[in-house]
Amino acid sequence: MFAVQTVDFNILSYTLPMKVSYTLIKGDLEELQRTLDSNYGLFGLVITDCKSLENKCPKQKILFSTNSKYQTYTISDIVNSPFDYLKDPIPVVAERFYQNSYIGNRLKTGRTNKGKIIGRIYYIRVNRPNFITSQLLWLRKPFNLKGVNIVYTLTFIMLLTMGILLFCIIQWITYRYKTQKQIDQQKYEKRLKDKEIERLELENKLLKIITFNSVFGQVIEQDFSSVIANRIQELDSILKNILLKIDSDIQNIVHDIYKAPLLFNLSCTPKIINEIISKTYNLEVYQPIIEFLLEANETLKTLDWVVKDLRGTTRIESEATLVQQEIEYLSQNLPPSLDNWKIDFDFDSSPLWINCNPWHLRSIVKNALYNSSAALKKYRRKLKNNSFQGYISVRCHSNNNTAIIDIEDNGPGIPSDILPLLYESSERLNRSAGEIAGNGSMIVFAYLCLHGGKVEKINLDKGARVSFQFPLTSD
User: Fold this and answer.
1) Residues forming beta bridges with residue 48, ordered by sequence position
2) Higher pLDDT, 41 or 393
3) Beta bridge partners of 46
4) What's the pLDDT at 365?
5) pTM for the whole thing?
6) In this structure, what is the dihedral angle of CA atoms 283, 286, 291, 296, given to the nearest 10 degrees?
7) Are 452 and 470 in contact (CB under 8 A)?
8) Would you say 78 and 123 are in contact if contact means Cβ atoms under 8 Å apart?
9) Contact 365, 405 (CB under 8 A)
10) Are 73 and 51 in contact (CB under 8 A)?
11) Is residue 431 a contact partner of residue 421, using CB atoms and an 8 Å limit?
């Protein structure tokens, strides 16, 4: 019972604070009571109004508790019982757990839910009578067929019946043994002869089975295995042709895109802007045109950069990749949209080799840089201060056979509703961005899954930090 209750409490620590906090916040008291009564009163669930972080809360009051036919719960019953905090917003991670089912003390998981404490939920064990006590209670009233007494009474009747039946069976066996002994002695020699004949027949049958098995194996090899092998070879050939066709098509498409020239010279826009400024005295009238031309020029630069970078998509296989080399290449070929901010790159001296696709690695870092840049732009507009100095730092280092790429900025931080899912979900987090934009988190998640990578995210006092982690390879 102790182990079972420990398992129940451990499971409830991961789920019940979320459910109870939600029903308390919504004020759904009927659903709350149904939740507390869902264990049929076999142990106690008690909710109090304590909002303190201290373990002891002497002035707390019981708000709700499990309806149990075994006992009612008071403050004295919950003094030494384990509990979890109820919070607003609702907690999503377990803060404590049992190391195994036979230890009564809970350990901290190292994770803490944010939010205001709105109460506590206690888990109270219900002590049952031990075996000796229940036996003595049954002996006093053996025919009181309630609770566990009916089990003891039926067990006693069954054992008594089995004893009488066993005695009768023994007597019958003894009688049969005496009468059968003479008959068996007479049939003994006859059975020996019959067994010898049966053995010879079995040997003949076994020989026939062995012969049939050999022939049947040859038939299977000739009529089935060879056909399947030929079919598999055909399918393998078809798959290889399909993959070669896909690879060829991708190469052709990328080649066409790369070779197709842009219909506008990238150097024209700055010249046009200088002409407008030099020949115009009323700059306020032409300022929107100048700003539009600057944005158009940035878009053209980005298109040119993307077309050049598309060649990396034709290789999806993994290979031994030096992290510092790929990040340094990215630092020298940054997208034009990242030119607005100071970006510092810092590399460890020791080489960090991982097994991945280099283009995917750079794409992961680029998406994080895009998000930092967008957050800094939004933050600058909110401050209404064009002199805001935004910065982004990229650091490559290692720890415990893991290559780590830290990307940190001094922006407003990651919104709390996006933080748990960012780069860890196959869903689009920014649904208002349209069908083309807002897919960066999905792309990074896919690449991390493909190459065994992990991500950690944290909001700092000023800004946020995202850490991408890949296992180092010794090959």
Assistant:
1) 62, 120
2) 393
3) 65, 122
4) 92
5) 0.40
6) -140
7) yes
8) no
9) yes
10) no
11) no
438 Cβ partners below 8 Å, 6+ apart? 428, 429, 430, 431, 432
φ, ψ for residue 141, nearest 5 deg: -135, 75
Residue range 248-286, pLDDT digits in tens: 665 566 555 555 555 556 667 777 777 777 766 555 656
What is the 3 state secondary structure string of the chain? CHHHHHHHHHHHHHHHHHHHHHHHHHCCHHHHHHHHHHHCCCCEEEEECCCCCCCCCCCCCEEEECCCCCCCCCHHHHCCCCEEEEEECCCCCCCEEECCCCCCCEEECCCCCCCEEEEEEEEECCCCCCHHHHHHHHHHCCCCCCCCHHHHHHHHHHHHHHHHHHHHHHHHHHHHHHHHHHHHHHHHHHHHHHHHHHHHHHHHHHHHHHHHHHHHHHHHHHHHHHHHHHHHHHHHHHHHHHHHHHHHHHHHHHHHHHHCCCCCCCCHHHHHHHHHHHHCCCHHHHHHHHHHHHHHHHHHHHHHHHHHHHHHHHCCCCEEEEHHHHHHHHHHCCCHHHCCCEEEEEECCCCCEEEECHHHHHHHHHHHHHHHHHHHHHHHHHHCCCCCCCEEEEEEEECCCEEEEEEEECCCCCCCCCCCCCCCCCCCCCHHHCCCCCCHHHHHHHHHHHCCCEEEEEECCCCEEEEEEEEECCC
What is the spatial order of strands in the sheet that 402-409 belongs to?
A: 342-347, 391-398, 402-409, 464-471, 454-459
- Cα distance between residue 304 and residue 288, in whole Å: 24
Question: What is the number of residues in the chain?
Answer: 475
d(CA 124, CA 81): 6
d(CA 74, CA 46): 9
Render pLDDT for 380-412 as a digit per residue (tens, 0 to 9).
888 877 777 888 999 999 998 999 999 999 989
Rg, C-alpha atoms of the chain: 39
Characterize the bridge pairing of strands 353-356 and 319-322: antiparallel
Lowest model confidence (mean pLDDT) among 56-70, 270-284, 358-372: 270-284
Report how far apart the first and last C-alpha atoms of the chain are (Å, whole number). 52
pLDDT at residue 68 greater than cutoff 60: yes
90 pLDDT above the threshold of 80: yes
Whether the predicted pLDDT of 468 surpasses 80: yes
Least Cα distance to 23 among 9, 14, 35, 11 occurs for 35
* Whole-number pLDDT of residue 440: 81
Residue 115's contacts (CB-CB under 8 Å, 6 or more residues apart) are 87, 88, 89, 90, 91
